[in-house]
Amino acid sequence: MSTLYDFTVKDREGKDVSLADYKGKVVLVVNTATECGFTPTYADLQKLYAEEHDKGLEILDFPCNQFGQQAPGTAEEIHTFCTGRFGVTFPQFGKLEVNGANEAPLYTWLKGQKGFAGFDPNHKITPILVDILGKADPDWEKKADIKWNFTKFLVDREGNVVERFEPTADVETVVKPAVEKLL
């Protein structure tokens, strides 16, 4: 069976990074975008990172432009935006695709470990996402594909996916307690 540590990804400069570098850490893998309704999630993620990094949390940020073209610009431009606007200090990698023919092997594996977990029915953006996704594919709920920006996968210290959080999952009340359990 594979673990997170079996994958290599590209950093912002296009250099290979082995995810084995994160062995022994609790890792949150997130596909992000800078022009999305969920973009303020960067602030929540940075707060979580600042609070839990010393206990062994890493957040790995993978910009993705597949959802409404909401991650324009180069990886470096995205990094400049995130550090300037949200004070992001967690690792940001090169842009990648999370679904389809050109999806990154990391995301093929992540989706194989944890499929779509459902949106928070009380989140204000849920009806908008359901409408967009339903028009594009009537069977969208049955597929493991990433549905939108800021989908998060929680990985334990052994490199195994423990949980998947959809973009509508609140970082403070839903993601943080799950992270703390693993720390």
Explained architecture:
The protein has 183 residues and is of the alpha+beta class. 31% of the residues lie in helices and 16% in strands. The protein is built from 5 helices and 6 strands. It is globular, with a radius of gyration of 15 Å. The two termini are 23 Å apart.
What is the 3D form? globular
Determine the strand fraction and express it as a percent band.
15-25%
Low-pLDDT stretches: none
Q: Gyration radius, to the nearest Å? A: 15 Å
Structural class: alpha+beta
Gap from first CA to last CA: 23 Å
Q: Give the ordered list of helices and strands.
A: EEEHEHHHEEH
Helix percent band: 25-40%
Q: What is the β-strand count?
A: 6
The largest pleated sheet is described as:
4 strands, mixed
Number of helices, counting only DSSP H or I runs of 4 residues or more = 5
Strand order of the largest sheet: 4-3-5-6
Describe this structure in a few short sentences.
This protein has helices spanning 41-52, 75-86, 105-113, 126-136, 171-182; strands spanning 8-10, 16-18, 26-32, 57-63, 152-155, 161-165. By secondary structure, the protein is of the alpha+beta class.
Q: Descriptors for this entry?
A:
183 residues; two-stranded antiparallel sheet; single chain
